[in-house]
Structure prediction request, 293 residues.
Amino acid sequence: MSGRGSTGYSAMLRPSGMQRLGRCALIVLALVFLGGFLILPVVAVFAQAFAQGWKMYCTSITQEDVLSALRLTGLVACIAVPLNVVFGIAASWAITRFDFHGKNLLITLIDIPLSVSPVVAGMMYVEVFGLHGWLGPWLSEHNLHVIFAVPGIVLATVFVTFPFVARELIPFMQAQGSDEEIAAVVLGANGWNVFWRVTLPNIKWALLYGTILAASRSIGEFGAVSVVSGHIRGQTTTLPLEVEMLYNEYSFTAAFAAASLLTLAAVVTLAIKKLIEVTSGVHRGPGEEEVES
Prediction:
């Protein structure tokens, strides 16, 4: 009797022909969508970049303006990402380990760059640090340049990227709890020992994940940087801005060659993210928190 019952239950769970057909249709639709809106554009970028051969590609990406933009992009990322890491750790530790007035406000403020347009963010800094802004006259008197200079680009990049590390760490540390840290304190460990020997090893994968996201966004940021940079070629143009300027000048091969560097950086970022997920045993879905496998 039990055998018949289990057989009947299995038959009920077995998908029907229409269900299998619907599943196949959804898979094909997803593949077509990904191919048309993701894979095909990426292939087109590299195809256009190498349209005139490898020699022309190398010539395009080794132009002084492109190299200068590449160096500035790397410099900005090297400044913005560590600042975001420090802020993310401090904010997440304060939010998950302490109760204080304004805690919910702090969480809300962290999410502001995710809801504000990057162009608006750039305009905010122009209003504050620009020549006719709130601090502009004082900065001009002391010969300090923020807008249309590297400091403005760094500030704009930090603004649009600082939620990434904090938003990765906060839910992870909340789920993890503080039992191990309390035990370390009871055993006589001071604050720094607790952080370096307990907290940091436990959050290392989430921290690395958030750092990768912040680095990827800082490299590809366009809107906020475009507003505060002034587009001074060779001085304040990052690689995304250089791509736009080359394209507007009808230097299509050079524009796509520079764009291929950004595309390659995105692909490498995705590969590193996947490696982190596999190594740490953490699997993510779109909009999901970390789930241990």
In short: Residues 7-49 form one domain.
